Each structure stands twice: as C-alpha cells, then as structure tokens.
Fold:
Amino acid sequence: MKRRFAVVPGDGIGVDVSREAVKTIEAAAEAFAFTAVLDSFDFGADRYLRTGETLPPGTFDLFRTYDAVFMGAFGDPRVPDMKHAADILLGTRFGMDLYANVRPVRCLHDRLCPLRDFRAKDVDFVVFRENTEGPYAGVGGIFKKGTVDEIGVQEDINTWKGVERILRAAFQYARKSGRKRVTMSDKSNAMRHAHDIWQRLFAQISAEFPDIEANHLYVDALAMQMVRNPAQFQVIVTNNMFGDIVTDLGAALQGGLGMAGSANLHPGQTSMFEPVHGSAPKYAGKDVSNPMGAILTAAMMLEHVGLAEAARAIEEAVVSCLDAGECTQDVGGKLGTAATGDAVARRLREVPRVAR
Ligand SMILES: NC(=O)c1ccc[n+]([C@@H]2O[C@H](COP(=O)([O-])OP(=O)(O)OC[C@H]3O[C@@H](n4cnc5c(N)ncnc54)[C@H](O)[C@@H]3O)[C@@H](O)[C@H]2O)c1
Structure:
C-alpha cells in the first residue's frame, strides 16, 4: 500500500512542527506496513523573498497528483503584507476549492482542560468552518487610502452553493461519526442580508437528517456557551470568519494552539491538512514549539486516505505521551519539539506486531 503526500512546512515553527509530523508518518508507515512518499516543497517566505514567487504556475495541478497535502504554517515579519501566506494558504484553500475546514476540538488530557468544572471528556466536538467565502473571499477595496476620507469595504460573501455544501457536510459527518446534534451558528439577527441564507438552508437541510438534532446559536452566544458548557456540543457548523475565531477559543479548551489540528476538505478531491496555529516567529527554530497539533493533523490526513488504524495509533501515542509528561512545556512537559516527536514515534514503533 502506497500513499503520496506533498509537504509544505512553510515559515517559522511551521518548519519545526512539520518535521515531527513527517517523523510520525514515517514511524506509522513502519508500524502499519504502508509506504509513505513524502515530497517536500519550499513554498514560503524565504523562497518568496529570494525569487518573488509564492506558488509557481501549475502548483494546484501538481498537488492534485498527491493523495493529500500537508502544510505547516505561514507568516514572516519580513513580509508584512502577508502576500506569500495569502497566496499559499488561502490560495490553496480557494484554488483547490477546499470548502470544508474541519477542526476537531478534543481535549486529550484532564490537565489540559482550563475549565474548573469540566474534564477532558467534556470537550469533544468538531467545527465545520466554511472555507471559501465570507469576508475572506477578498471582495472589497480601499477608497481614498491614507486620507481622512478613507473607506474600507470588505464584503461578506454567502452563496447558496457554498452554504448548502458546508451544512450538508456537517450533517453527513454527524451521521457517519455517530454524533447526534449539529449546532449552526451565524449572526442573522444583525447580518440580516448576509446570513438569512444560513437560516433558510439550515431549516431545509436539517429536515433531510431527522435522526440528527439541529439547533442554532448566534455566534456571540456560541462563544459564551463553549465556555459555560462545552459538553453540549457535538458538531458546530459556521461561516469562514466565525469558524476562524471560535476555533481559537476551541484550541484554548483543548490545551492551547499547539494541540489543535485541522483538515481542509473537498470530498473526492485532493485535500490539505494543517495545524491550526500560525508560524509563531519568536519560537522558530528554538525547539520549543508543541508539535502535537501537527502530529494530530497528520493522523487526520492518514485517516482521510484510508489509514484509519494508523491514525488511531497516532492519537493513542499522543495521549500516552501526555500521560507520561513526555511533551513540551505549554502542555506540562519538559521536552523540546524534536524529543516530543521522538516520543510519539517510539510509541508507534512499539505497536504490537499483531496489529501490523
Ligand atoms: N495557518 C497559518 O499559517 C496561520 C494561522 C494563524 C496565524 N498565522 C500567522 O502566523 C504569524 C504569527 O501569528 P500569531 O502570533 O497571531 O499566531 P500563532 O499561532 O503563530 O502564535 C500565537 C501564540 O500561540 C502559541 N503557539 C502557537 N503555536 C504553538 C505551538 N505549536 N506550540 C506552542 N505554542 C504555540 C504561542 O504562544 C504563540 O505566541 C503571523 O504572521 C500570522 O499571520 C498563520
């Protein structure tokens, strides 16, 4: 069995954590007897500053020849306008039409749960974030820039097709994964034009899934409820910007940004996987960043390409490392980035032969 992955470590700690994700996939490949081809690409700030190129022409066609794409993180203080990050990260999401940004919010250890009255088991839901529309579509402009009359406009794009497919993806996921409730979040009370479509389509699509409870929260109430009682959530579906924001809150519920993984999916097509965190430039190359979000992202990627057993083993190895305190400082350990990756890989290599 062979799977081919394109790996784009990117900038800052993206490079550090991607190295550990690759290490983990290689260990999983040994343990579960599959071949992982991992081709690395240097798209990022260094290359952009050196050549002026962000993504060469034909990159998306090239990515589509792989089973999946893994990305680290993008962002570099030498590129203040974030041109390369926009082209590479948003460009891939939009250019490959990866419309479902799937972000699990799962706390893997009681010690990581920041809420006094809750335990790890109470934080276990998945956010489906629309990934190709909203204000991030970039429709707008700046008028009279730099004058006192300056006007900045950025439109919130919500299309029938875009909203319908993310809602459907959330319900289908709930049904397939045995989850019983989908919560849709918008701001249709204030954004009466832009978000009315979410209300109408949610009513329509939820009716196709009578076995799944459908409920709704305005995004401000959602933020409050995520902190008051995260155990009530199973699947949350929302738009691009709200999904971006509430999954950082979600990351805090699972032990911090270093623990959060994500997938950017277009079912049936090559998809892209990346940790939720950014490039944290001040920690770059210092062997301090937590690679577990990237490692859990690698597990999501393996599951997506039909290697569910290997994916589960990676998750178990991460939990075992957290239990043993073999992890970075942000999650209560003393190890560096590379030693944490080694600890996960060592556990995978110890998977009993019978499971291979
Ligand atoms: N997906 C992406 O590539 C992405 C996402 C967010 C931000 N960014 C970019 O990254 C750069 C830095 O942005 P930022 O500082 O707002 O966000 P960030 O996620 O890079 O870091 C914020 C803070 O979170 C913590 N953190 C993040 N990842 C961690 C990890 N793996 N281990 C331990 N701690 C971790 C650190 O304390 C860090 O200072 C900016 O250029 C930003 O635009 C990129």
Observations:
- The first strand starts at residue 2 and ends at 10.
- Residues 6 and 279 are 19 Å apart (CA to CA).
- The two ends are 13 Å apart (CA to CA).
